[in-house]
Design brief:
Blueprint: E1 6-9, E2 12-23, E3 28-35, E4 49-53, E5 56-60, H1 73-76
Length: 77
């Protein structure tokens, strides 16, 4: 991911990736995204979100908190 990839909910675009990088601490890619189109009344939720990377869809987990490890337990493991 480089940024600009679409965020999809049930195949409908709901936002895009602003920035992305690999996290050695988490052992996976992380991204900062902007969600612009969510409407529970219209049936769109953030329960199942996917990222469109060059035509391939990858499931994503939404978190309102930063992936933070204050004791560095994952690094020391």
């Amino acid at each position: 991911m480089w940024g600009g990839e679409s965020l999809l909910s049930e195949g409908v675009p709901v936002g895009y990736v602003i920035s992305a990088a690999h996290s050695p601490t988490l052992g996976r890619s992380v991204a900062l995204g902007l969600v612009t189109e969510v409407s529970p009344e219209g049936g769109l939720t953030l329960e199942k979100v996917e990222v469109d990377v060059a035509g391939d869809l990858y499931s994503a987990q939404i978190s309102l908190k930063a992936p933070y490890d204050p004791t560095s337990a994952r690094v020391k493991a």
